[in-house]
Amino acid sequence: MKKSFEIPRRSILKALGAFASLPVGRLMYRSIAHAQGMPTPLKFIGVYHPHGVSAEHYARRASDTDTVFDLNFADSALTPFDSPAKYGGRSFKNRIITFEGVDLAVAELSGTSGHGAAVCLFTGSMTTPGDHNAQGPSLDQYLARTRGLGAGTPFPTLNLGVGASGDANQDAIAHAPGGAVIRNQLDPVVVFDQVFSSLVVNTDAAAAAAARRRGQSVLDFVRGDLNSLSGRLAAAEKLKLDQHLSALREIETRLTVVQQQTCTQPTRPEKTGNADPLNDFPKVLKYNGGEPYFDRIADLQIDLLAQAIACGSTRFGTLFLDDPGKIYTVDGTALPRDVHNEVAHTYSTSATAAGLATRVRLARLNRYYYGKIARLMQRLDEAAALDSTVILAGSDMGNPSAHSTRNIPLLLAGGANGQLTMGRRLQSGPDLTSHNKVLISVAKLFGDQSNSFGVANDPALITGGFPGL
Length: 469
What we know:
By secondary structure, the protein is α/β, with parallel strands linked by helices. It has helices at about 10-15, 25-35, 105-110, 120, 140-145, 190-195, 205-225, 235-260, 295-310, 340-345, 355-380, 435-445, and strands at about 45-50, 95-100, 100-105, 160, 315-320, 330, 335, 390-395, 410-415, 425, 435.
């Protein structure tokens, strides 16, 4: 039996040549692949937020099920995912999966509690005695570098942050093989200059036209290569060839539109001198004057990361979100300026009036962070990249006043190229489930067959995916 005709990936890249490494070339490759029925390459973003969760305002209500649930109950921490008027103009209720009953078992096993357990969130690694360092790579580094899935992009990974560079364990979420820390890039200007300064898309009309002409030349080359095959193919294969030539003609008509819709060069951020002073951010580092600007920086980092994903500059990234700085209101209600000591550390499970008030304050802080994740989803959706992106967001603790690594908030968001049924709220069994199970399930989405991820002296904690996911 003859094999069905298909343009191999290597042939496409060969035809594109050096042009394949340029933004338009990468867009063309994705379009050709899409025309052949190949899925858009899957992307991954890991997002960290501090200070645990107000469990009472995060967990499912008694009337909720896995697939039928309310995110807008009183003081819900998850409101940003289902409040179009406030967060991004649309609902993402059916684009998330929340987890309950999941713990950082590897942190618990190695005696790492509180903020220092951030190193365990994406590494799934027990920490070393004494200094509590990670012992393995974070999931983004494992997929992009160890597995080589990031090799076809200019930046195998982008590791961005707000406030803290990752020098301390409580701020470190990206790790190389062996556990070496990969620092968070904190400055949106540096991110822009590294990723977008050489991007020639929708900025200069003449340059964009020249890029389209180069794209047309590549299409002509590919078309000539296909036409040369015509005389050597059987009738059935000629039909498939005609289909591919039609796909190329479709790419010709869509190329400019694809650029405009998905790969637009963002505006270069300015640290000072903006027309609106609230857009200034002269400092970026925590404890060095950066705190008042963290909210602005977070929005810039989110927008840049989403656009980098859309432009094919990277497939893998992390985003570290620190305290929100001098944010005085969330949904119109004031937050204490010192959210660490006045919100996280005062959280109480007591049913007294005072205890209930602490739960609401923490839920409001959680809502701030989930609002940033909703913004990331909105930006990816605007760039037609949400369906092919997996976002994994979580914290390093559950109850922040106890610095407990049990029952942490963890959620998946995006589309995963249709490999996951989204719009669910999953609960583990009566015993807490190791969060490594979720990491393993995410790795499987990218074709990893090892069925294990992380470092622990208890193999059960780092083996097997999350049940039912």
